[in-house]
Amino acid sequence: MSRTKAFLIILSIFMTILTTGWNCRVRPNSNESNYATKLEDILDQIKSYEQQVQLRANNIQTILNRQKIKHGTNAYYSNDERNLEFVKNFQETHTNLQHENATILMLVRNWELEGALKSMRSLEDRFNHLYKYTWTFLNDVPFTDEFKEATTLMASGKTQYGLIPSEDWDRPSWINETKFEENLLNSEKNGVLYGNSRSYRNMCRFNSGYFYKQKLLDQYQWYFRVEPDVEYFCDFQYDPFKLMRENNKKYGFVISIYEYENTIPTLWNTTKQFMEQYPQHIHPNNSLEFITNTSPIGSKALAIQSESDYNLCHFWSNFEIANLDFFRSKAYNDYFDFLEKTGGFYYERWGDAPVHSIGVALLLARDEIHHFEDIGYIHAPFESCPTSRYTRLNKRCVCDPYKEANIDMTLHSCVPKWWKFGAGKKFMNE
Ligand SMILES: *[C@@H]1O[C@H](CO)[C@@H](O)[C@H](O)[C@H]1NC(C)=O
Ligand SMILES: *[C@@H]1O[C@H](CO)[C@@H](O)[C@H](O)[C@H]1NC(C)=O
Ligand SMILES: *[C@@H]1O[C@H](CO)[C@@H](O)[C@H](O)[C@H]1NC(C)=O
Ligand SMILES: *[C@@H]1O[C@H](CO)[C@@H](O)[C@H](O)[C@H]1NC(C)=O
Ligand SMILES: *[C@@H]1O[C@H](CO)[C@@H](O)[C@H](O)[C@H]1NC(C)=O
Prior knowledge:
The chain is an alpha/beta fold and 430 residues long. It folds into two domains: 3-62; 164-421, Alpha-Beta Complex (Spore Coat Polysaccharide Biosynthesis Protein SpsA, Chain A), CATH 3.90.550.10. It has helices at residues 3-20, 32-65, 84-93, 113-126, 145-154, 166-169, 177-189, 198-209, 240-246, 267-277, 288-292, 324-328, 330-340, 344-347, 352-363, 389-394, 415-421; strands spanning 102-107, 135-139, 159-163, 222-225, 231-232, 251-253, 256-258, 313-315, 320-323, 369-371, 377-379, 382-384. Helix 1 packs antiparallel against helix 2, helix 8 runs parallel beside helix 15 and helix 13 packs across helix 15. Bound molecules: 2-acetamido-2-deoxy-beta-D-glucopyranose (5 copies). It is a single-pass type II membrane protein.
């Protein structure tokens, strides 16, 4: 409907009101100059309405076209990649897909096939179908043909399947069986999460010190860790490996929370001994304060108390985009070996999340760690959803940032600490 037409309709309605009366009690004022004044009022109203509509349209256009607004306050790319031309041109301009030296990595069991496919479907749709990075699957038993067939068909690129050697997975023979069994029993009694599980301990130790030693990963510099049954809420719209490389990042995370202290009673004491023995490995611009500061951030007090100086903050390692060369470094391996020889992975239930996190926090510079705040992600029971509405609209996110499961909004999140003591809000004031 044209503006003139709309105006004529409104005008005729107005004339009808004037001549017939809005209702029976109020008679129209027949004063001619009042007609003119009222007409002008209405014209003004229409004009201002049209201006508002135009303004809104401009705003939406600005949001969609904007070059300056970023996905997140610490994002490196603006949203210009959202436009259709980008997607259209992508295949033509990227004849050599998989252009970063990277792989997507999943440690998974045969019976977890459905969860694996769910995660793959999500990451392919949201990111990898445009890039076709190879998927690498690792397992401590051989993958079945059924698993290989389904995952191969789900992947947009290649897939490869690795069998973890027993010495990288199983409990070493030097572990004191009596002490180990005692801890299993005590852990169960004390309600330690996964406390009575033998295989969980193997997995945590493997993820801490052996995943990057697997042959299939030798050919890569970067990995993106994916677990079964996760989901990514938003389109990536950029290659996170490229972002990491171009901005000199070594480790990327989405969620950061507090660890259960009863899984790691002596981890911090052991780490302190390591720091004393290997001062040369501690980076001068480390994130020690992020993992030791206990002052409350914001108006509310911390929910978590710690017995040691470690405040229990860690990056939730079921999501990781990181540089394998960091884990291959002498510094990280000295750290892992130091932990390994105490037997803490078996006499306690040290998780790979606090081990990676403390390693990263001590051995890397703050600026080498990246918070992917624009990638919505869920690994039950926690999720993270971008709080910026622009980001959610622009990246086609399907998530609710105000939901209870959104860990970033709760006291259990360490992300505010990262903002304050890490490199988190560097771009906030741009
Ligand atoms: C018509 O309106 C004018 C201006 O509002 C006013 O001065 C005048 O008294 C009105 N005449 C009648 C008949 O209502
Ligand atoms: C193994 O652990 C048990 C229980 O902690 C201890 O009594 C025993 O001396 C240990 N054995 C060795 C060989 O260290
Ligand atoms: C990728 O990285 C690995 C490990 O650093 C290296 O051996 C390999 O040569 C690299 N490949 C390419 C194509 O650069
Ligand atoms: C850690 O070390 C300190 C000092 O050496 C000691 O007092 C404390 O009991 C140790 N904590 C644990 C849990 O071993
Ligand atoms: C530590 O940070 C300072 C200030 O940003 C920088 O000048 C220095 O080069 C950094 N040191 C290292 C070893 O990266």
